[in-house]
Write a structure and sequence with these properties.
Elements (H helix, E strand, L loop, with lengths): L5 H8 L5 E4 L2 E3 L6 H18 L4 H4 E4 L4 E4 L8 H18 L6 H21 L3 H15 L3 E4 L22 E5 L3 E12 L6 E4 L14 E6 L5 E5 L3 H8 L16 E12 L3 E4 L2 H41 L6 H26 L2 E2 L7 E2 L2 H26 L2 H4 L12 H7 L8 H15 L3 H7 L4 H11 L3 H11 L3
Parallel strand pairs: 1-10, 5-8
Antiparallel strand pairs: 1-2, 3-4, 6-7, 7-11, 8-9, 9-12, 10-11, 13-14
Helix pairs in contact: 1-2, 4-8, 4-9, 5-6, 5-8, 8-9, 8-10, 8-13, 9-10, 10-13, 10-14, 10-15
The structure holds flavin-adenine dinucleotide.
Flavin-adenine dinucleotide binds next to strand 5, strand 7 and helix 14.
């Protein structure tokens, strides 16, 4: 069987030597640094679930490519059933982790590339698709974790790529020879790549003639020569660094959604790992196919899982406070459930209305409209859910002292007495649930959810491209029998 155990996954990371910086210092070991360790734990969990009889149905599947069982996060959907399972896996992993499943961007990139390499070969006579399939077979056979990188620093948003004074604000091919290509530039906001094995790189800013050097997609080991990671660092990172015990934190094991800027300083990529090179009209296809797939994931599946964490914590706090019969709190909880289910419905609709794209490719992608609507809907719904949770949680969500005070002999008894709501629940539990909800409502998840998979305007642009209102106009004309 191709599946690795979680222990084998952790062991396999020891063979990699990514160059990583966080908070101005070199991270010598991703397994030991407290913040990078959260990514290791999240990815590791995906290996455990794929082997767990309780979850293997959702987290693993049969791959005809290698005639074996593989982790679902390495499988390209070949039916709407696969897309539905993909959606269910997104919700499952998100609600179990309370943070990113870092393998989803790679998983969604596989869909975009499987589809578009097939189309390029058909239209242009290139030979990308067999190369991509060979690569995917290698990923499945070795059960590798693959992160995905599309977003770039970019220059002024009102200028075209070639007008930026610095040509490397988008990842650019700077050399091409018989062995492969050399790239220079950076990708930003990239989730969890340093604790994966491989990085799948997609183009972002190649749209027009003359921009061929930006029209590149390839796979690289995460520690290829010339790659450097500059990690995010926030008050939540500092808090994790400073904690006496991880138990003090809102998400002790899996932490925040961790990202990094990835610098490519003349990185060599051999031809067998290059899946798109110069065919700029197909860059936009890769991006839009990736976008709708990832928007189904981010909007209609993973945030549904996150909402379950928020709803669970809000419900517990309602009970600690004896507010079970407060009509407005019941109403707020119900509103959260409705928003969650609306999110789930959009994700499921995107999956069940998915189609083979292009026809004959064998690759199934989510419905264009519903994929984008999934994310557009959740951008606002997630803020609303956090606002409702903030109301139920009360000021304590942002004013609570450290859980360390429960060990401080000078104030321990007072903290236990005055933060218990007079309930039978241990104060430690009450404080931990508040800390979890602080993570969500007063942390990084609002902006993270808004921008991850693109902000609202990005989805509206995609929708405007596919909706022409002809059907709606004709309905009115027919109703009125307009000539
Ligand atoms: C937690 C998190 C995890 C992420 N993980 C990944 C990952 O793993 N891989 C990956 O590739 N990306 C990842 N991203 C990146 C994410 O997809 C981008 O942040 C998102 O697409 C927005 O791009 P940006 O951050 O450059 O913001 P911007 O594009 O700068 O957006 C800021 C504002 O500018 C507006 N704007 C931008 N361009 C234009 C324009 N041309 N005209 C008019 N208005 C414009 C936007 O609509 C928005 O209102 C992640 C982001 C987050 C927050």
């Amino acid at each position: 069987m191709a599946l690795m155990t979680p222990e084998q996954f952790e062991e396999s990371l020891k063979d990699l030597r990514p160059k990583i910086f966080m908070n101005g210092k070199r991270v010598e070991n991703v397994l030991e640094n407290r913040n990078t360790r959260t990514v290791v734990e999240a990815n590791k969990a995906s290996y455990a679930w794929a082997l767990d009889p309780k979850y293997k149905d959702i987290m693993s599947c049969y791959s005809p490519l290698i005639d074996d069982v593989v982790n679902r996060y390495t499988h390209v959907s070949a039916s709407t059933d696969d897309l539905v399972k993909k959606a269910e896996a997104g919700t499952f992993t998100a609600e179990m982790l309370g943070t990113c499943i870092y393998r989803c961007v790679g998983y969604d990139s596989f869909h975009a590339l499987a589809s578009t390499t097939w189309e390029m070969d058909r239209d242009l006579g290139t030979e990308y698709h067999p190369k991509f399939i060979e690569y995917l077979k290698m990923v499945q056979t070795k059960d590798l974790s693959v992160a995905g990188a599309l977003t770039e620093p970019r220059g002024r948003r009102d200028q075209k790529t070639l007008s930026w004074p610095n040509p490397f604000l988008s990842l650019k091919m700077v050399d091409k020879n018989e062995d492969g290509i050399v790239v220079r530039g950076a990708k930003i906001n990239i989730s969890g790549a340093y604790a994966s094995h491989e990085l799948m790189v997609l183009p972002q800013a190649a749209h027009f003639e003359g921009e061929e050097d930006y029209a590149i997609a390839f796979a690289t080991p995460i520690d290829a020569e010339g790659i450097t990671y500059v990690c995010q660092y926030s008050p939540y990172s500092a808090e994790r660094d400073m904690a006496d015990s991880l138990e003090e934190l809102g998400n002790p094991v899996f932490g925040q959604r961790e990202t990094a800027m990835i610098i490519f300083d003349n990185v060599f990529v051999p031809w067998e790992r290059v899946f798109h090179c110069g065919e700029y009209p197909y860059s936009i296809k890769i991006v839009s196919r990736y976008a709708k797939t990832h928007r189904m994931t981010c909007g209609g599946t993973c945030k549904v899982g996150f909402m379950n964490q928020i709803i669970g914590a809000s419900k517990l706090i309602q009970e600690y406070k004896g507010l079970e019969n407060a009509a407005h709190i019941k109403d707020q909880l119900m509103e959260m459930v409705v928003l969650r289910e609306t999110g789930r419905a959009c994700g499921m609709a995107a999956a069940t209305k998915g189609i083979e794209e292009p026809e004959g490719s064998g690759v199934y992608l989510p419905d264009e409209i519903m994929g984008n609507v999934s994310k557009l809907n959740i951008c606002n719904a997630f803020w609303r859910v956090m606002a409702l949770a903030g109301d139920i949680g009360g000021g304590l969500l942002v004013t609570m002292p450290s859980i360390k005070e429960l060990k401080n002999p000078e104030v321990k008894d007072y903290v236990e007495e005055f933060y218990s709501f007079g309930s039978d629940e241990p104060t430690e539990n009450i404080m931990k649930v508040h800390k979890l909800l602080q993570n969500w409502t007063a942390g990084q998840h609002g902006v993270g959810t808004w921008h991850g998979a693109g902000p609202v305007m990005a989805q509206k642009i995609m929708l405007q491209r596919v909706i022409d209102y002809e059907h709606e106009k004709n309905l009115v004309k027919n109703t009125l029998n307009l000539k």
